[in-house]
Design a protein that fits this description.
Elements lengths: L12 E7 L3 H5 L4 H10 L8 E5 L5 E9 L1 H4 L5 H6 L6 E6 L6 H11 L15 E2 L7 H19 L7 H15 L2 E6 L2 H4 L3 H7 L7 E7 L5 E6 L1 E5 L8 H4 L7 H15 L5 E11 L11 E3 L5 E3 L7 H14 L4 E6 L3 H7 L4 E5 L2 H13 L4 E4 L16 E2 L8 H10 L7 E5 L3 E2 L9 E2 L4 H12 L2
Helix pairs in contact: 5-6, 6-11, 9-12, 11-16, 14-16
């Protein structure tokens, strides 16, 4: 689906956004009929509250929506979207807003509130439309919204329709849309081209493992995005229990997020050289599945002891990161639904990330706050390096004890990147309950913050 603003129209319904502390003064400037209607119906400007006032002809003459208090807005995101979902499917235009109204973020939220995953049950009900307000770069917000929609669609699609082949097709379609090139290494060619861990993790599936390599742009600083593309994760021979397997269609959420981010970067025409690497596999169970106790070689030459076949994401990312580092780009960013430990630490809303450079972390923190894409920095804690060294091999893919699981996974990945210019996101990729602009289901995390931070991170 495409998320777009409505075309300007003289028939657009005026929309007034009012907050708690400005509501009474706002009413003083309104027609008596509007004020009387609001008073008589007991309207309060809480977040998500909507009042429709009829005009002389009986049609909707204007709409008033609540923006709540600053304290309440701090407890959520996209306050305008909470009201947008309750408005009729007509065209609205912002007529007045409070002083503390972030027009860019709130109008993005409005577009995102119109998202519906309709692949299997139709397109959903028609949504209220918004005319792009003056002073807002509507084309840019549409690109960002549709990058997020792409991420959501990919995550929401079940594994029977979003295996490695379909993920490759989605990447090829994106490349074609933006004039990017794409190369794919598939099956036993992964061994020939020295991606042994990608091959090992994915070889048990009926769909061959593959490495997607997309490039775009020929001027400016270099950025490589690496996304975990485990299209379904059974846990391998360390089989997950059924309750833990139910959401494993989202284990390619890192790949979905970097593809959505790539759409934003290319659609906005940023002056940089972009590379996107996605190891696309299914961690399946078969007679040739890799085993606990196996020791694997990697592209970088480091050996890895397998203590749990359910810690497979870091294995496929490791080979892709080693390839990324060989070109020494200005920044490498990996995104992955990597560990449950990250979710235990910060829950489903925050995007935990690890940054080698304090300047990158500062740029990301500022950007995340600005665009309502909250982040939380986690530490590359060097004293834990010994936890990922098993003694029998160079690295352990699943240290015993259960402590600091997200940190040890990040340290594992860092071993394959020979640069200090590395940032890693351990995201969840799923919204467990509906919130304004974020329905239950797949969701992008961290992509908009990265997009906003790129000029500072790369000197654009």
């Amino acid at each position: 689906m495409s998320l777009t603003f409505a075309k300007p129209s003289a028939d657009a319904i005026p929309l007034h956004v009012v907050c708690d502390d400005g509501f009474e003064s706002w009413k003083q400037g309104q027609p008596a009929a509007v004020t009387a209607w609001l008073d008589n119906t007991g309207f309060s400007p809480a977040i998500g509250k909507v009042a429709l006032v009829a005009g002389a002809d009986g049609a909707v003459g204007c709409a008033i929506v609540g923006y709540g208090s600053a304290a309440k807005r701090k407890r959520g995101r996209f306050a305008l979207a909470a009201a947008a979902a309750k408005l009729p499917a007509q065209v609205f235009a912002l007529a007045s807003t409070p002083e503390r109204f972030d027009t860019d973020t709130e109008t993005l939220g409005w577009l995102l509130a119109g998202y519906h995953f309709g692949k299997y049950n139709g397109g959903g009900k028609d949504a209220a439309q918004l005319v792009c307000p003056d002073g807002v770069d509507g084309a840019a917000i549409e690109v960002i919204a549709n990058g997020e929609a792409l991420t959501r669609d990919l995550i929401n699609t079940p594994a029977n329709d979003m295996g490695p082949e379909a993920l490759e097709a989605a990447a090829r379609a994106l490349a074609q849309d933006h004039g990017a090139s794409i190369d794919v290494t598939t099956g036993d060619a992964l061994l020939t081209e020295n991606f042994p861990m990608i091959h090992t993790v994915g070889r048990a599936s009926d769909q061959a493992p593959r490495l997607l390599d997309m490039r775009w742009g020929d001027v400016g600083p270099t950025l490589t995005l690496v996304g975990k593309g485990v299209c379904f994760d059974t846990g391998g021979l360390n089989l997950k229990p059924g309750a833990s397997m139910g959401l494993m269609k989202k284990d390619m959420g890192g790949a979905a997020t970097v593809l959505g981010l790539a759409h934003m970067i290319m659609g906005l025409g940023l002056k940089l050289q972009l590379r996107v690497l996605i190891p696309a596999v299914e961690n399946a169970v078969s007679s040739n599945a890799f085993r606990p106790g196996d020791i694997l070689n990697s592209r970088k030459g480091l050996t890895v002891e397998i203590n749990n076949t359910d810690a497979e994401g870091r294995l496929v990312l490791a080979d892709a990161l080693a390839l990324a580092a060989e070109e020494d780009p200005d920044q490498i960013i990996s995104m992955a639904t990597l560990t449950g430990a990250a979710r235990v630490a910060v829950g489903p809303d925050l995007s935990p990330y690890y940054a080698e450079e304090d300047s990158v972390a500062a740029a990301l923190e500022s950007a995340g706050a600005k665009v309502a894409d909250p982040l939380w920095r986690m530490p590359f804690w060097d004293p834990y390096e010994g936890m990922i060294e098993p003694g029998i091999a160079d690295l352990d893919n699943a240290p015993a004890g259960g402590f600091a699981g997200s940190i040890t996974a990040a340290l594992f990945l860092r071993r394959f990147v020979d640069t200090g210019r590395y940032t890693h996101f351990d995201i969840y990729g799923w919204n467990p309950s509906a919130k304004p602009a974020r329905p239950k289901g797949g969701v992008g995390m961290g992509a908009r913050a990265v997009l906003e931070a790129l000029p500072e991170m790369l000197g654009l």
